[in-house]
TrEMBL record:
The lineage of its organism: Bacteria, Pseudomonadati, Pseudomonadota, Betaproteobacteria, Burkholderiales. Keywords: Hydrolase, Metal-binding, Zinc. InterPro entries: AspA/AstE_fam, AstE_AspA_cat. Residues 24-126 form the Succinylglutamate desuccinylase/Aspartoacylase catalytic domain. The keyword Metal-binding applies. It comes from Variovorax ureilyticus. This is Succinylglutamate desuccinylase/aspartoacylase family protein. It comes from the Bacteria.
Amino acid sequence: MTVSTAALTASDTLRIHAYAAIEPGPKFIVLGGVHGDETCGTAGIERAVAELDDGRLRLLRGQLTMVPVANPLARRRGRREGERNLNRLFEPSAPGMEPADYEARITNLLCPLLDRHEVLLDLHSFQSAGEAFAMIGPRDNTGTLEPFARAFEEGQLALHLRTPRVVEGWLDIYAAGVAQRAGGKPVDPVQVAFGKGTNEYMRSRGGYGVTLECGQHEDPAAPGVAYEAILSALRLLGMIAPEPGALPPPKPSLLRLVSVVDRFHEEDQFVREWATFDPVSRGDPIAVREDGSVLHSERDGFIVFPNAEALPGTEWFYFAVNSDRDLTQQPR
């Protein structure tokens, strides 16, 4: 049900900070608070805004836009979603159609904003314990799911965020999960579209984007990770002065998502408390279903986004393996 106008408050206003240098340059947008319980991106953005406003940080060229809280209703309620996940089905409502829910109304405001930019940094955090990491899109391709031609630029942005790990393969595995839930039947394009978020939208508009998972929701270091990522991206794009004596970014571990496992029943339980990027070997037990059957790892790899509180019928955890992709190599 759509949130009524009467139910909205002043705190549901979408606050947007925009800066434009006299010298032309890249058009860069940073989002925080796409999920209401993820506050580190908001804190990082507000720190950068304060430094731009008081002159400690100076924009040399281009245009910079920052949205500290992209989902005000979810933030006001202190939970991941207002009415649904804003980072799914991220596309404007069809012409003449009323937005289906609160998040659709927000999407209708954010999409035209993203349309005016070419680079996106979307700042998030996650529920389980674990280190910060970046998520990137596909390699250059001309396929139908997510055609793309700016993988090198996107990879460079991920590298310069200096996280120990970078993860690829989100939309492919989301689509595979949809097909899995349909029992192998032809996939409904609308269901796959529900897996498309801010970065997928940016790529569909000819730009590129990286999601930075800054750490666990309550990690006191996460706001600093978000802030430093904003500065690193601005330096890479030549929008602020370079850092004197800065070393080249270290080469991160690159992982590829290969599967997603759903939770079927509220009695389904993990065999232990997993953290994102916990390694497992082939044959290791991961979880026990309500009927007593044990889920074992089918290969060596890593647990990603384990969610012990997942609702039945939703994603329980993802599985990743080492990737052969090299983000430092330009395409030939």
